[in-house]
Design a protein that fits this description.
Length: about 375
């Protein structure tokens, strides 16, 4: 196998825009185009345009597609209405998180599972293995789609100028087929920024046409192209977990404070059920650590892996950290011992290269948009 990074259908376009490219999960992706702070602020106040073609699409079809997904994933997927989407997870037998996913129900017997780029192969393999005995087919559709996102308060207005699809009737976590700028697309009202926005799944050969049309339609509203760097600060402010940081195979959804995605009430067994029932009990009675927000009192930026300290003891670990353009202070998400996890807990700091910098413990998310 060659180790050359995979290129999205928009690769030449990113380079023509002067993007700084980076390797991300084996893909060459735009990190930023100009200023990541400006890109971040554009999404919070106007709109931003993202290439997310590195995400992994897996199609599950057949009479038992719903039954397979109910068995393979922790969510109640059979209960998702056609045209709607659900945030869920796929876990190991021991309850550890293999990936967090969005599942779209495209039809009675057709679903699209969207996995993180770094886990797409793992999820594909797990679903294929778990499909044994079900009348359902699992198909790798990573090459069948390019994914373009428009995020921010102006995104709806920009998209409306290019489609006759009923965007006002499209709820959050819903998706419908339509045409955008003459290009057939699955239009989903989803995103990873904490703002209103849309994700558009299209054939790779149409990606450039769609990107250019959105760029032109969005120019008067202040839309700018955005890279992975601001996507990370946007999701951090919105308290959204990132696989490999807040979510790993050594953690269950209950450890991550996301136990709500595990649906014990659904019929039948599912992979990890027993381990997750035990994890739910632990989390309710004696949680080891809790996921919290930390807001810096100083200017130094916390990074993943740094120790959270209190009274000279290590009481947790930072999973994500960055300066927040919206709040104007450095922020961190961290797993902290339950005794120090309550919002407002005094005396908590982060060990930044030997100095214990003071931090305030807050509930997540740091930022919530005004609806």
């Amino acid at each position: 196998m060659s180790n050359a990074p995979r290129l999205t259908a928009l690769d030449a376009l990113h380079r023509s825009l002067g993007a700084t490219m980076t390797d991300f999960a084996g893909w060459d992706m735009p990190l930023r185009y100009a200023s990541e702070r400006d890109e971040h602020n554009a999404v919070r106040t106007k709109a931003g345009l993202f290439d997310l073609s590195h995400m992994g699409e897996i199609t599950v079809t057949g009479p038992q597609a719903a039954a397979l997904l109910d068995y393979a994933l922790v969510g109640n997927i059979g209960g998702v209405a056609t045209g709607r989407a659900r945030y869920t997870m796929i876990c190991q037998e021991d309850g550890g998180i293999l990936d967090d996913l969005i599942v779209y129900r495209l039809g009675d017997t057709e679903y699209m599972v969207v996995a993180n780029a770094s886990n797409a192969q793992i999820v594909l393999d797990a679903l294929t293995e778990r499909a044994e005995g079900f009348d359902a087919a699992v198909r790798d559709d990573r090459d069948a789609y390019a994914l373009i996102a428009v995020q921010g308060p102006e995104s709806s207005g920009i998209l409306k100028s290019l489609t006759d699809a009923d965007l006002d009737g499209l709820k959050y976590y819903a998706g419908l087929p339509g045409t955008v700028a003459g290009v057939p697309a699955l239009i989903a009202r989803t995103g990873y920024t904490g703002e209103d926005g849309f994700e558009l799944f299209v054939e790779p050969r149409h990606a450039e046409t769609l990107w250019q049309a959105l760029t032109e339609a969005g120019a008067p509203a202040g839309l700018v192209p955005c890279g992975l760097s601001c996507r990370d600060t946007l999701r951090l402010e919105a308290g959204m977990p990132l696989y490999g940081h807040e979510l790993t195979t050594s953690l269950t959804p209950f450890d991550a404070g996301l136990g709500r995605v595990v649906k014990f009430e659904k019929e039948g067994d599912f992979v990890g059920r027993k381990a997750l029932e035990a994890a739910a009990e632990r989390a309710a009675t004696n949680p080891p650590r809790k996921l919290v927000g930390l807001v810096a009192q100083g200017r130094r930026v916390p990074r993943a892996g740094m120790a959270v300290v209190a009274g000279g003891e290590v009481v947790g670990e930072v999973t994500s950290g960055a300066p927040s353009p919206t709040l104007g202070k450095p922020l961190a998400i961290a797993y902290v011992d339950a005794a120090h996890a309550a919002p407002g807990t005094e005396g908590v700091g982060v060990d930044i290269r030997g100095t214990h910098e003071p931090y305030e413990v807050v509930a997540l998310p740091f930022y919530k948009r005004q609806k």
